[in-house]
Every structure is written in C-alpha cells, then in structure tokens.
Amino acid sequence: MSAASHTHDHAHDHHEQSWIWKYIFSTDHKVIGIQYGLCGLVFLLFGFFLMMVMRWTIAYGGAPIPGYGFLHTLESIPYLGEFIRWRIERWAPGGVVSPELYNMFGDMHGTIMVFMGIVPLGFAAFGNYVMPLQIGTVDMAFPKLNAWSFWLFFLGGLMMLGSFLLPTGAAQTGWTNYSPLATTTNMIVKNTFMTGATWWLLAMVLVISSSLLGAVNFITTIINLRAKGMTWMRLPFFCWAMLVTGFLLLLAFPPLEVAAILQLFDRVFGSSFFLPSGLVDGTQHYDISGGGNPLLYQHLFWFLAHPEVYVLILPAFAIVTEVIPANARRPLWGYKAMVYSVLTLGFLSFIVWAHHMYLTGMGTMISTFFQFTTVLISVPSVILLTSMMITLWGGSIRFNPQMLFASAFLPMFGIGGLTGLPLAFNFIDLHLHDTYYVIGHFHYVVAPGTIFALFAGIYHWFPKMTGRKMSDFLGKLHFWPSLLCMNLIFGPMFWQGMAGFHRRWYDGGKYFEETTKDMLWTNELISFAAWGLALSQIPFIINLWLSIKGGEKVNSDNPWDCTTLEWTTPTPPPHGNFLTPPTAYRGPYEYNVPGDAEEFTPQWERPAGAPDVSPEPATHSHAH
Amino acid sequence: MEIPYTVNARPDTGLWNAKVGVWLFLASEVMLFGGLFSSYIFLRLGADYNWPVGVLDAFWGCVNTLVLIASSVTIVMAWASLKMGKVMAYRIYLFITILCALGFMAIKTVEYKGKFEHFGVRLTDGTLLEGHFPKEGYRIEFEDVTKFTLELDGVYPESNPKDFLRDCTTPEAERKFLNAAGKEVILDEAGLNALRLEAKAQKKTSVELTSTKPLKFSIKRGAFGFIDPIYSYTAESIFFKDNTQTNGKLVKDSMTLEVDLADVRDCADAEKSLAWHYLGDEQKAKFIALRDEKLAAFKKSFGNKEDPYKSPHFKRHGLVLKVVGGAHAAAGHAKPEHGGAETDTTHAEHVASGHDHPSVVIEKKDITFWSNFTPKYNTYYAIYFALTSLHGLHVVAGALVLSYFLFFDGKLLRKDPEHMANRVEVGGLFWHFVDLVWIFLFPLLYLL
C-alpha cells in the first residue's frame, strides 16, 4: 500500500463524523434508540389524536368537529388549501366525521399504536439504548443492521401515514384487517397498488422485516456480547425480558408476514387464500376462484398478535423491574422465579392465540384447549406482578415521577390482567366479544400499563441520556391527571361492554337508543376524559424538551444510586460506551442487602479480595 | 471502538456473532415457511374443489432439486477450500454455486411462463376446459359507442382519454366529441380542464360527451384485476377503470381456446357436459372409451364393493380427458373469418410443435370463471406461486450475497481469510436452508 493511501486511510479513521452521519444515519445503538424513541412518541401522539377525533364522533356524532370552521379559513393557502379541500373535506364533509373516516381512524389507531408506537418505544428504543449498556458492551452485535432496522421501520411508518393521502384513504377494516372484508374493500379500483389496504400490507411487510432484523440483533447481542462476569443469573431482569421479547418477535412475526403476503396476493393477483367459494357482492359473484378460508387469515394473524401482546407488555415489565428496586431501595424479590416465569410466559404465549377466535365457530374442542392454555398463562404473569409488589415491602420508597408511574403500573396492569380472565372462558367471551369490555381490558394492560411504564423509563434514564434530570414538579403534574383520566376512560368501558356496547359503533350507540339511552352519557364522560388525558400530556412534552437544555444537572454518573452497569458510563455515554471494559462481580439488584456495609453495591464494584481481572487482551488488532 | 467476537468465537458460547445471528435468522425463516406450509395443509384439507395433483412437470422439478443439492455441495467445498487456503478452488466452487442458482431460476422462469400462457375456463355446468389462447387472446368487441360520461371530480381515479380510448379501434382522425352544448371538445389537457370547469360551474362531478360518429372498441380482457382496463360491461355499456362509462352494443363476446384438457369431474352428467357440445362427438367418444376403460379397471381391482365415483384416483384418471387431435376440423369451425389456407398453415404448425389441440369458441354465457394458471385460478396455484416465488426470492438473495463474496470481497479475502471464511460459512448456512425448503417444496407441489 502506498504511503499516500495509507495516510488517507488513517485520516479517514479519525475523521470527525459529519452531523448527518452522527445523528441521522448513525449506527450507534444509543442514537438509534433515541431515534426509535422520538419516532415512537410522535406516532403515539398521532394515534392518540386519531382516537380523540373518534371520541368526538362517539359522543357527539353528526356535529361538526369544534374548530373546523377555522380550518376552512385556511383554504386559500396553496397546497394546504388543496389538502383541506380534497382530503379533509372529502372524508369529513362540513367537519362531520364520515363513517369511512371513523373506520380509517379506528384501523390506523390500532395499527399505529401497536406497531409504530409501543413496540418501537418499548422494545426498540429502551432495548437499544439500555440493553447494551446493561450487559456492558460497546454496541449491538450488528450496528449496521441496527440502522437498517430503524430505517425500514421509518419507511413503513411513513407509508402507513402516507396511506391517508391515497384516493381511497387509509385501510378501513380494523387493525386486524380480517379477510374477506379487508380483501374485497376497494379491490375494484384502477390500480390495486394505490389503495389504503394494500399500503397497509406493504407497510406491515416493512415493519415486520425491521422487527425481525432487530430481534436477531438483540438476541445475538445478549448471547454473545455480555461483559466479563455478566453470567446469565447476573443479567438484569430488563435484559431477560428483552431477550424473551426478541424471541417472540423473531418467531411470531413471520406468520404475520405470511398473512400479509397472502392477503397481498389476494388483493393484487386475485387469488383466494382467504376467500371462500360463493362470495357475493350484492347479487354479483366476485370474480374469484374461491376455495380459500377466512379462518386461515385469523390463525396466521393471531399467531403473531397474541405473542405481540407480550411484546407490548414485557418491555414494560423490563422497565418497571429496574425502576422499582432502584426507588424502593430493595433487591428485586424472587429474581430467579421471575426469570423462569418470563421464559414460561414467552413459551406459553405461542399457544394461546385462538382465544381471540372463540366466536368463529372453530369448534368446542379447540376452544377448550385454548381456554386451558390461556388460564395457564396467567400463572407466570401473576408471579411477575406479585414479585414486583413484594419488592416494595419494607422499602424506603422515593416517590419521584418514575416511581409514581412504575408503582401505578402495578395496579393498572393488575386490573387489565384480571379483567382478561373472564374473557379467557369461551362461554363468557361469547357475550363480551367485540364489546367495549374487551377494549377496556386490553387498554388497561397497554395504556395505563405499558405507557405508564414507558413514561417511568423516560424519567428514569433521561439523566443518563442528557446529563440532566427532568422536572419533578412537571412530572407529578403529568402523572396525577394522567392516572385519573386513564381510569375515567377505561373504567366505564367495562360497564358499557357488559351493557352490550359494541366496539365498532360509529355513533356510540345512538342508533340503538331504545336500549342504550341510560348509558349514553358514559360516552361523553369517556370522551372528556380522553381530551383531559391529552391536556395532561402537555406538562410532559414541555418537561421533555425544556429539560434537555434547562434541567437540573446531574452531579454524578449514577444520580439515582443504581446498581446496573449503564450507570458506570460517562454521562451521556460516548460512542463505544465504557472508558474501560466493565466487569460484573455480583447480581444486579444489591440494594440494602442485609449484612452489607454499603446502602447499595453496584455490579461493577469489586468485592474485597477478588482478583483484579484485567480486561481481555484484544483478540483481533488493527494496529496502524 | 470495536465489536468483540466478530471473527473469533466467544469462549463460553463457542460462537462468533454472525453465526448466532444467522441461526436466529434461520429460525425465523423456519417460522415463515412453516406458516406457508401450514397454509398449504389448511387449504388442501379445506378445498371444496378437486385439488390438482401431478399438474406440474416433475421431471424439471427433479432436475431443479438436483441442481440445488449440487450447489449445496459446492458451497461447502468453497468454504472448506477457503479454510485450507486454496483460494482458486474457493473461487471456482463459489462460481459453480452461483451458476447453479442461475440454472435453478432459469428452469423456474420457463415453468412460470408456461403457467402464465395456460388458461382454464369453468363452464356453467361445472365442466373445466383448459388450453391456450390464440395470439390475440380474449377480446370483446363493442360497436355504436356514442355517449361518454366522464368523471371529473378531481378525485382519483378520474377519466382520462389515455385510459378509456386506449382500446378504441376507430382511427383517431375520425373521432370527434361534442359536449352537452354541442361544441366540439379536444381531449387534451386544456380541453379536460375546460370540461372540469364546466362541470364545476354546473355543480356536477361528471360531464357527458357525444361522439359524432359511432365508435368501435375491441377490448382485450386480462385475467388479473389490475391488468384489465375495465371494471365491468353489459350488453349495452362499458364501465372503464377510470370511472368513464359509455353506452354501446356488445357484438362479440366469445373466447377462442385451444383445448388440451377437459375435466368433467364436477359435472352432474358427464356425458351431457358442455365440453362435448364444444369439442364434438369425436372427443366425447374418446372420453366414454376412457371412462369405461378406467371403470372396468376399477371394478377389476375393487369389485362392486366400492363406488368408483367416490375415488379421487378414478375420477382423476377416468373423468379427465387429455384432448388431442382435431385441430384442423375444429379450427375450421371456430374461425370462419379465416381463410382456409391460413387455417391449414396454423394446423401444420400446431402438429409440428406438438400442440395438436382443437380450437373452440366458447360463448360468454356458458362461462362462470376463467383465468390463466396464476394465483387467481385456484388455491393450489395460489399457494404454488406464493411458496415458489418466496423461495425464488430467497434463491436470488442468496445468489446475490454469494456473488458479492466472489466479486467484491477480494480485499477482505487478502487481508483476513479467516473472516472471509466466516462470511462464506454464514452464506452457506443460508444456502443450505434455501435448499432444504426446496426439498420440502418439491414433493409437496410436484408429487403429492
């Protein structure tokens, strides 16, 4: 190699990365984690906005949305005016939400919240940022692949949003997109590729591919890149939960990919995977061969979508198990039991899917089997929740915002879980299926459950990411109204559901006024609570942005006195994370261990008398 | 900063990163193809029609199996050669592997092409006729088209002359359109804009145009929804995909098919099937002879105890007639507009190319469903295309990765052959998986 090119190579290695490569197309797990996090938050907000519009229609169907008149005054502005005329006015003439728009928003609310909001935030953002730090490594095993996952996800998300602008609007057939409805809607158009339902499928294929790459990366990193001394039973529970989540994504997503591909075949190539023989539209037979089966779609869909529930909840458990011991100043109770429980939970989550399908008439034998496994899976869930509650026992609890959110998670998730038990029994489910009871149940798990845990995570790791704490006051102003509103939203839904309110009523049940009139006021209550919940997020948004530059500076790398390895890095951690390769000498939760002199002992603290393990010699050097 | 264990194995797990990664990736691939294979089982068990058996060319399928197995051997040889430091041998083996992938895809392409050109028609009595279209395909013809209703609401799809006049056979110079006021309209961008404004002024979203001269249309029907230029048509109207509607008179709606197979399994009375109406008595006699022969053979094996009509095997062989011969007679009957000499050449060509099949003209009123052998035709072809196209994508992806190793990874090969060998091992693992999937696919789709 010539001297000139050698110099060039050398210069290249030490070249300061330009802004765009450092913050946009970065391969650093922390930057990618933050990218996922911000995107996830934006998608959550957008999904919530869709729901707020829907809540207006449910409570005051037929009346124009407040503020629509103002929108009309903007019509003279170029582009924006076009947008209002052709897109908004088309779906909401005069500001009245049309049933099509309601369906679109309903479909997209579910899809965006689950696949673009919670999973990227819980698994991808926190997992990416925290997991490599906790296991004490420099980065993910495949940093470029990591960047690819993010950009695939981003593209899928943009496509999902872009589908609103298509001539047919976004998909309108519920977040589950069941065939035959999802296959036949908008099938006869000039170009099947330019329809909302087709874009939904294409976007899902992108998002799924992103998740698969992410899952491979996460699992490989946890298996192969743990720091010296970081044995399996010294692994923070956070990483265990991420490992199991990774496996769920890895193994459950491909069948959904199959479902999406086959439905795409049905839509684009006119096949009949999910279309039975003799399907008619009005009086006319569809021009299809038939011979397929709609149940096949549901099996493929729920084979993913049930493990997906645990993909939503396990990262929440992961965060809460870090926040609670740190702020209760107690070791995590039953660490080993929790590890085995989470593994069992992961396994069982693959064999419960058909409890979403009791009403399809797949047969009592199969229903009974799935009823059994569904009840069984509550055992590990209860072990996890109970262990966390017992962890609080006798602790000297610090009620900072993250602890408030984490401790609120426990009863909220408890309500969500326990109200799920009746649904596990198929004779009760026949009555409650597709009512607001079901909505209330899974939103208790995901909204005040998972989202509270995500907030806890943000308050907890914010100082590590930025070097500043978020405001305590604004945090509490965020927490208390949120807690109140969440319960006012989802609590009455159980009541509505048992009264027979169907989840897909566009007018909230006014059409059936004879039977629903005593309960219609609850629609308004829930809607006001939803808008109240939106208001109570304002302190959080202010807090998040202002604290980046104006928050109280932390005076140590370990401001919460935690024990896991991420708190030994410089703040914020540089590219490569640790100044010297860390070693784990002990378990992850040594807070107030009886007999210890110290109040807490971090994992990296060398026990007296233990040999000073020098860092491994580099096995593969690139000396210049 | 350097990621540990990219080349050397971590002592306690015994694995380097990419090896863990690729096994995990393969696990997810197993779930992907597992989902597809489960779908196959689900569809086959639940099929409410005669599931096609043995309709693919098993010989070429078998050749493809051997090609892939050979490539699995050569990829291992490539890896082993690299490990032993024999770089030239490594390159040759890798090159052979890539050639095998290309050969596999070439055979697959020929197979796909054959399917796209093969059509099946389900008649109203349940009879199935299969065969090829003549060159011009299936065309419907309209005359006396004078009134056009153009949809111009600014919302896609909007009427576009490029779409709705594409299949107009009247020469362009002779087309002249008048608007409702009787003024001539030129259908270019400016003219359409003027119409749009006109519609808006009247608070309508559509405008009506009249053609001064009745126009003729000849529209080629595509089997795919997105190829077809029209939504639907009746005897008096056409509804184009750009939302334009016209009046008109349907003058020809029949399909010419060179029949190579008549399947009367789902026909209530096989001897009265519409197939013989179209194919003539000669084929009917052949069919009766075939059926009786198979019935006799069935009786010989099973006596009178079993009902042959409950045996899929008997039905598959006794009620499905391979239609050969009679191209000359039927063709003459089918294409009265063609000159005798021309028909003769066509016939000679058919016989020479081994396609001696009668050409029949099937009336639209007798057809309930038609398609080429694409996913639309039935769920067997649907899952066949889904499985093989996804497998084909894997073959292509694998071949691309191996080509990258061969043509663009020379630097790493010189600098760090051990790292390169790791890469080849990972690529090879994926390649074995692709091979394994085919080993399941081949019997499932070609033999069972």
Q: Can you characterise this structure?
A:
- The complex is a heterodimer of chains A (624) and B (448).
- By secondary structure, chain A is mostly helical.
- Helix content of chain A is 62%, strand content 1%.
- Chain A is built from 20 helices and 4 strands.
- In chain A, the strands form 2 sheets. Chain A has a two-stranded antiparallel sheet. Chain A has a two-stranded antiparallel sheet with strand order 3-4.
- In chain A, a hairpin with a 2-residue loop joins strand 1 and strand 2.
- The radius of gyration of chain A is 26 Å and the shape is globular.
- By secondary structure, chain B is α+β, with helices and mostly antiparallel strands.
- Helix content of chain B is 50%, strand content 19%.
- In chain B, strands 1, 2, 3, 4, 5, 6, 7, 8, 9, 10, 11, 12 and 13 form a 13-stranded antiparallel sheet that branches.
- In chain B, helix 11 runs antiparallel to helix 13.
- Chain B is flat.
- The two termini of chain B are 55 Å apart.
